[in-house]
Design brief:
Layout: H1 5-14, E1 19-20, H2 29-39, H3 45-56, H4 58-65, E2 72-77, H5 85-94, E3 99-105, H6 108-121, E4 130-131, H7 134-139, E5 147-152, H8 162-173, E6 181-187, H9 192-198, H10 205-221, E7 230-237, E8 242-249, E9 253-257, E10 262-266, E11 271-278, H11 282-291, E12 294-301, E13 307-314
Parallel strand pairs: 1-11, 2-3, 2-5, 3-4, 5-6
Antiparallel strand pairs: 6-13, 7-8, 8-11, 9-10, 12-13
Helix pairs in contact: 2-10, 4-5
């Protein structure tokens, strides 16, 4: 029987040294619920900070995104529950902008939920949901009539390593015309203690979120990870601007994964690397943009300088 993408990923990630699992698999139903809790934690500043930026500066952000005239498409990669995006949608509707909102998600279930909520809350909104992966949605972008504004909010860009990030930015830039715009959320470098605390909260919700990845493997791949012998660990390197999250084996152990038909050995204190979350400076953002063939058109920050929503255009 062929492996699912998840099974293939787990087999590859645990079969190498150092062992890795991708953060993209955090978000099963339990993981998604835990992340909703994380976003409300006092230590976790990114969500509420970006929300405040979009709430307080929505008119200026919309002005930087929309074309001077004519219809346009507002395409969002990874719309989630649309909480922050609704601030921009309401402002665009208030301005009577001629636009269509096209949220993109690979999950048909997630998309149907968002679409139903938007039709109820914003009944005059022209909605064109896209159930595709990002790459396919971007390839389809030039076929949309009029100008385009592409959203990638929530500091998700920080989950890419440097080489992946540049490749992704170039992929975003490729289908853009000179009048099109791209809005990306960047978490900025700040007090290293605040950054680390955001990924290792006092209540242990982030630890539960990370450990849930092992529960998912147990459930979906019939594994026998014993969570009593695993712990969450995170660190922040201010020189690299990188938060790194790990699952740590607290003893020598062997884990059987039945659906893979194999077992994996772990030494005492061996780690599984599960996530990177990079933080940026303004000069780094400008340099990344240049390397991807983009220029910074506008920057919207909170007063403390914790977070930036950056509007980019093709060079």
């Amino acid at each position: 029987m062929p492996h699912s993408d998840f099974a293939t990923h787990v087999a590859q990630g645990l079969g190498q040294l150092p062992k890795t699992l991708s953060s993209m698999y955090f978000y099963d139903d339990v993981g998604s619920q835990l992340f909703q809790q994380i976003m409300g934690l006092p230590e976790y500043y990114p969500t509420r900070t970006e929300y405040a930026i979009l709430q307080e500066q929505s008119a200026a952000i919309v002005a930087a995104l929309r074309p001077e005239a004519g219809p346009f498409s507002l395409v969002e990669l990874g719309a989630g529950d649309g909480l922050k995006t609704k601030l921009l949608l309401r402002e665009l509707l208030r301005q009577q902008a001629d636009f269509t909102y096209a949220p993109v998600d690979i999950s048909a279930g997630a998309m149907s939920g968002l679409a139903a909520a938007l039709r109820q809350e914003l009944p005059t909104l022209r909605l064109d949901p896209v159930v595709e992966d990002y790459a396919t949605a971007l390839q389809q972008l030039p076929t949309r009539p009029g100008s385009k504004a592409v959203l990638f909010l929530g500091s998700n860009i920080g989950n890419f390593g440097p080489a992946e990030r540049l490749a992704f930015l170039r992929q975003l830039a490729a289908p853009l015309a000179p009048a099109d715009r791209l809005l990306i959320g960047f978490d900025l470098q700040k007090d290293p203690r605040r950054i680390r605390a955001a990924y290792d909260d006092a209540q242990g919700i982030t630890a539960a979120f990370n450990l849930n990845l092992l529960r998912r493997i147990n459930r979906e791949l019939e594994a026998d990870f014993d969570l009593r012998y695993w712990q969450h660990y995170t660190d922040y390197n201010p020189l690299a601007g990188a938060v790194r999250s790990f699952l740590v084996s607290t003893r020598a152990q062997q884990v059987q994964i039945n659906k893979l038909g194999r077992s994996f050995d772990f030494a005492a204190w061996e780690v599984i690397h599960t996530e990177n979350s990079y933080k940026f400076t303004r000069p780094q953002i400008e340099e990344m943009a240049r390397e991807a063939g983009l220029r910074v058109a506008a920057v919207f920050q909170d007063t403390a300088g914790d977070f930036a929503d950056v509007v980019l255009a093709k060079m």
